Amino acid sequence: MNASVKLIELVLPATVSLKAVVPEEHVSARILGTERFGSGVVVDSAGLILTVNYVVMGAQTVEVTLLDNTTVEASVVAQDYASGIAVLDMGVKSLAALRPGRSADLQLGQDVFIAAAAGGNQRRASDGAVTSLGPYDAYWEYSLDRAIKTTAMNPGLGGAPLLDMLGRVVGVVSLDLGEVGHFSLAIPVEQYSEHRDELLRCGRRVSRPSRAWVGLYCYTVRDHVVIAGLLPGAPGEAAGLRPGDVVLAVNDRDISGRHDLYSYLWTQAPGTVIAFRVFRNSAVQQVAVPAGNAEEFFA
After folding, report:
1. What CA–CA distances, in Å, run from 251 to 25, 135, 243, 247, 274?
2. Are 86 and 80 in contact (CB under 8 A)?
3. HSE-CB of 102 using CA atoms within 13 angstroms
4. In the chain, which residues have pLDDT < 70?
5. How far apart are CA 82 and CA 197, in angstroms?
6. Which domains does the chain have, with CATH numbers?
7. String of DSSP letters for 176-192
8. How high is the pLDDT of residue 1?
9. What is the pTM of this model?
10. Is residue 204 helix, strand or coil?
11. What was the pLDDT predicted at 4?
């Protein structure tokens, strides 16, 4: 480990283990389950925890286990579906907390480490180097203009802090990528620190315009987007899109890849009828999709 034992010992008291129980009727239960476990990090001594949204989506309360095995109940106070972060409040004062740093100051090759929960009061750490600071898009309707990829493997549960060698939080570990040189992906901490007041005041990023959402899973093949699946009950399925459809154009705008599709969709507002031109069963078809709002769908 490049991170010293002393540094790891300093940061571990600010890490937490999370257990969220989600009602079966919540729409996210079908894809993420009703019982979820994650990591988090205390970023304010008043008891604010930063984690990833998919762990707590649909949960009213979350059980938090501290390093000393104390358990407390936290409420979900902010969710940002666009970036994928969430903020919890334990309502407990004078806790160990870590100061958010600046992922914008990271350099390729810079040493970083992850301190993750492995259930209960168990913690694990791993280190590595930053290998990418560029954009990222996923097979669901998710994209970051700037994401942190690192050779550090996530040693525990999602939502753990990514830290620099001064023990400052520079990101929130979201995904295990499993790619050569890119083992973990973290959301830059600025998604929280630069919008903290708005998130805590409103529970979400209200200053960012709402954007169209279809509820599809897709991948790019030879400069075309292929729909791999559709979320049950989401606008895309309801309107008649199907797995296997090749998206040729949206509102007569040619689509050349997944990022291109997302970027254009997000210029449209929820409620807008979006015309998909798709190739299906050896023919070109038109499918009109009234766009939805992900925040409302998963509320």
Report:
1. 34, 25, 20, 11, 6
2. yes
3. 3
4. 1-3
5. 17
6. 5-96+196-202 (2.40.10.10), 103-190 (2.40.10.10), 216-297 (2.30.42.10)
7. EEEETTEEEEEEETHHH
8. 62
9. 0.94
10. coil
11. 83
